[in-house]
Each structure stands twice: as structure tokens, then as C-alpha cells.
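Per reviewer request, we include the raw input and output of the structure prediction for the construct analysed in the revised manuscript.
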Amino acid sequence: MTFLEKAALQLRRASETRVVCPPVRELIGDTSVENAYQVQFINTDIRVKNGATIIGKKIGLTSFKVQEQLGVNQPDFGVLFDDMQIAHNGIVAFSELMQPKAEAEVAFVLKKELPNPDCTLQEVEDAIDYAVAAIEIVGSRVANWDIKITDTVADNASASHFVLGKVKKKLSDIDVVNGEMQLFKNDILYSEGTGKACLDSPVFATHWLAQKMASLGLPLQAGDIVLSGALGPMVNLNPGDQLLATVAGLGEVRVKIG
């Protein structure tokens, strides 16, 4: 078993047993993002072979401040599987989550494939069918969120679950840069921000993702969901919490923690 396979197995066992593990950078190093993606791909392939369906991608590290903290100069990405999606106003059991935190963001659903590694921003905008408000629940298989860039990339960009709102809007009908977001936990405002917090625009983040995925030979497809990145600080979650996020022009999205 290679060191990459050992790291993948460590994260897989943590996910299956809901018992956190040590940082995988102890196996793959703390600087090689390429190694970390190889670990992510190993576990993605295993999940697909076991029947999971990929329905999109999530973008992480879209805050310049967080990039600086982790010593990187670009975002990262993870895979969205069908069993990660929770219905609007639905419930997810706390027992399904690992060290969960929540963030609010804009999600896009695509209507065209984006196969060109040099695709333009305009091509990305043209490929977006609609935008919706979203809550992403992130989680870490790594104990105490003791992560560096290779830990989170290997851990599928700390993906866990997500919820999409019901209001669907064309990109031309909303202001994704200046539109305000508010995230409430148990009716108390915990986080707020605008699209500018996400790489200066959620569309810029999606442009990065489209080029990155195409360069890897894994282009974004029509129908894919893209979680474009947080519009404000993350919020810690506990059993019984109720979340409500609002995004200007996109209405609200709700989820309960069981």
C-alpha cells in the first residue's frame, strides 16, 4: 500500500466510523497539493464504485484571508455526492456530521459543459443556468480541525452536506458581488457578508473551478451543482440547531440539525 493509499484509507475509516483521525499531512506532507488531490481522487473513485453519484463540485478557500492562513494562493475543490444533499427546510442527523460548521453561499446550476481549460469568464456566465441560495455544512475527519492545505484537500475539501433554496434566478437578475448574505442560528445573526468575500465574486470562483476541472480532464458538466464558496464566517453547529440563510435576490434557505 502506498503512502497515498494509506492516507486515503485513514480518512475513509474516519468517515465510516465517525471517529476523527490524525492529520494526513503526517503521511503525505504539508505542501504537496498534488499528493492531496491524489488522495481525494482515490476515495472519490471508491465511492463511485460503491454506487455514489457525483452531482457537482464545491469550492473551498475562497477567502483571501483563509488562503493566507493556510499558505496558499488559490482555492481548492471537493466533490458533491448525491447523499450529501438535504432538502430545503429538511433535517440532518447530528450523528451523520463530523465536527460540523455551516456557511452560507451562492450555488450555481450549469446548463452547459465547460471543457476548455482556457474558458473565458463570459463562457462560464453563459453556462450558468441559474443561481440559488445555499447552506453548506462542512466537516473534518481530522481531529480538532487541525488542518493545513494538504489535509483539507485530501479530505474532499472538508465537504459534508449542503442545502439549496427554492428561489432560482438567472445570473443577470441578481447582484452576486454586492448582494448581502445573513446566516442565522436559532434566530440569532451569526454571520454576514457579500459576494465580494468569495474571491471578489462567486462567478470568479466558478471560473477558476471550470478551468481547473477542465485542465484535469474532469470538466464541469451540464446539470452540475457548484457551491461557489462562503460569503461570510463559518458557524459551529450543535444538535438541535436551526439555520436560516438569506441571500439578496435569492430568498432564504433553511435546515435543521437533528
